[in-house]
Amino acid sequence: MHLDRDDERILAGEFGETRQRFMELLVGLGAVYGAERLVPIASAQVSGASYKTIGDWGLEWLSSLDARAVVPAVLNPVGMDLERWQEMGISAEFARKQEEVVRVYRRLGIRLECTCTPYYLAITNYGDHLAWSESSAVCYANSVIGARTNREGGPSALAAALVGKTPFYGLHLVKNRRPTVVIEVEGAPEAPDGGWYGALGVLAGREVGARIPFFRGIRPNRDGLKSLGAAMAATGAVALFHVDRITPESRVFPFETGPLETITVTAAEVEAVWSDLPVEAVALGCPHCSGEELARIAALLDGRRTTKPLYVFAARRVIAEHPTEVAAIERSGARVYADTCMVVSPALERYAAIMTNSGKGLAYMPSMCGAEARLAPLEACVAAATS
Ligand code: F3S
Question: Whole-structure pTM over 0.85, yes or no?
């Protein structure tokens, strides 16, 4: 693998031991995947931020590092709202550990946005090379924005943040971004909400695994694309998808889908993923809500009171930019939390069954929260929380 003069100096330890170790990691990864060189990145997004997932070992390892990010770098959700953790029922012991994790990341120069929707922070453009590690954000960056990132692990994304580069292989190369399977959707409703695309993503992810699907027969908006990608990243290992005449690179590869395998999914199959069995709590915002989603939840809750816990998750900045919608949601008794989510916080471990409109939440809550998860459209989720 070709290294330039600066890479060689980092590798020789001229910029400290932490950068040297991380450069070794990047070079090792590049060698495994046949990268010819490293490529400079526009930003990094680092997962492994919740004390629930990294534990004492992770905290100890992070504490041993000594360097600062050289590109804009943001953190994935942590285990609690950093300001309202007591209201979430988080223990003081967990909060103390989580605050330590956050302090370490701050020292490493990682911005504490604590969100899986860093693309709402306007740091990403078409064609940018990135090193992002949250799988739903990777899918969105590649597919909806047309940026280029592999599915990084937490350590390799952190290495890229501290070095400013990542190995040039996989989805960084245009030739690897072609669709490899077609999904023909039959009978899709006119303008379904994100929950419909979450259910489609659950099915599609199981079918395609790590391939690159090209969808026909759907016209999702940005929130629908977000839900679709997050679910496929969870039930499969999808890191990039195209939607005919919607996503930017669908125009780059439009005539190359002819010889590909075609999988047909019907609207009836999608809707069969939904469940209306009883639950103890409802959770929305996986991935974190956009401003439009907060507005829709507020409108659905208008004049209603919650009868069971309703959690809504969004990035702190998105919450700050939508005070009216957030106030309307909270008037119902629901809570809008920042910095954390339904999966990486221990707060939802107290429920036996949780309803969500997120295909990714459906895939992860059983193993991460010990709860049965039910998928339903947004309207049904709000109805379950208020009836
Ligand atoms: Fe984000 Fe947590 Fe879902 S990190 S994508 S809200 S599991």
Answer: yes
